[in-house]
Here is the input.
Amino acid sequence: MNHIENLTRYIANFVDELSKSGLTDVVISPGSRSTPLAMTFAEHPEIKEWIVLDERSAAYFGLGLAKQTKRPVALVCSSGTAAANYFPAIVEAHQSRVPLLALTADRPHELRDVGAPQAIDQIKLFGDYVKSFHEMALPESIPSMLQYARTRAARAANEALTGNAGPVHLNFPFREPLIPDFSLENLWGEPLQEPYTIWHEGQKRLSDSFMKQFAAKLSSFKKGVIVCGPQVKEELAEAVSLLAESFGLPIIADPLSQVRTGEHATNNIIEGYDAFLRNEKVRNALKPDYILRFGAMPVSKAYLFYVKDHIDVNQYVVEHHEGYREPVGNPTEFILADSVSFCSDLLEEAPTIIAEDNEWLAQWKQMNEVVKKHIAKVADGSLTEGEAVKTLVEIIPDNSSLYVGNSMAIRDVDTFLMTSKKKLTLLANRGANGIDGMVSSGVGAAASGQPVTLLLGDLSFYHDMNGLLTAKHYNLNITILVVNNNGGGIFSFLPQASNEKHFEALFGTPLHIEFQKAIDMYGGSYYNPTTAMELKEALQSSYKEKGLSVVEVKTDRTDNFHWHKKLWSGIEHEILKTVME
Here is the structure.
């Protein structure tokens, strides 16, 4: 067989096996060396290709799509720095456990380390931030090599999802010529009905004896706290709410826990913990006997202080698979089990351990009601950052996704997202907590067809404006709410703000940019409301439109800092005066 036929059959079998393994989407950044992969993916009838010019944006687009669908998404790029531009998104995928397949094209071995153009060392380029790396063999089409191509494709797709999901990297050396021949007979190989390699994975559950012992241990305590941190399993909300009601425990529910919204019972959910746990006296009064956490560490720094203050408290962290997510360093007992099954198994062993007079839960609820009362009355018609977020969570459509940026955006959602029967999926890039790639991530999530609203600050928006091109190119429906305080608003809450000499240049970093001109360039609709009512109308209009809509709310960083401080101070004062006395 000649080179072209070897190349074509080898890559066609690889791509077809990815399809049989469940891959439905590939994000391709144009380049010459990746031609065999790019053209073959585009040719496959069962795989949707998304063309994103900038590799950095492409990787985040794939990340957002994979987060939304919970399925692996493939990334295809050329050699050299094209592959290096994937790195930030690969790091985020690793940290936040998102399945990605990075398929990088490369020079063949004889053109490496000899000064050939667009050639860098791509072997294990992403280091330990991928679950595995494999250097693919040069293309051949003898039966054993086609089997090899299929096996490697199936392994990569499975590995990205098995255990803690994450990115997998395959590097493809290609010799020229690079253009496949799609006129070949039996292009996609033998018509297999099933994937070439199949894995079966069951739910991880602990033994009956362990569950009996653990239930007995919890029954000996009076004051427990259930914590639901960032996690993606939607079924946990129902399971953990039943557990909390049966045990008479409060649920500290992070906004990314998928627990604050939905049809499940929300009686024991505490949304306002970030506001009242800021006070040391309150933290001491709410010292628990044990903490039972599901998911990652919550966003709230106040909760971090709460855990730090109680190093002697029994802490149990339920993880689906391996992993160590306990940044405080407190003594911790890790329970490796499926979270939903764990809740039901625990309930089976101890159907109820509620104290007759549950003052513990009542105290948490009383403080939470104080927070909710203050949040409900903060509106005075002005459009503060908090009011903008509160309005958003009120107006956002049911059965949609809210993708939240880092810094102030996620913290305001933590403060203002109250429990609701509205079903929302909360997404964020909280693995590495960076502001990069947020627009591309949100647009990627919107590519799933699910209604998506992206909430972020002006620096995050500026950092990734080229992500808007994909929304324009594919006419994707997405509403972006940009809270523009002309710089890094979160730094106003940090000690750096006290250094007036260097603060603005190094931390405030005002942009002084008119975003409307960029929105026009990308063919989007633009709104600039100045009151809460205008914001409601703008959001409602944006949800009726097709394509890209950007709503920009302009605020003042200093005013925002004082507004938040006044809100927290009022809450703290009332709790100390009425609840703690």
User: Anything to note?
Assistant: The chain has a mean pLDDT of 93. The chain has three domains: 3-173, 208-359, 378-568. Residues 208-359 form a domain with the Rossmann fold fold (CATH 3.40.50.1220).
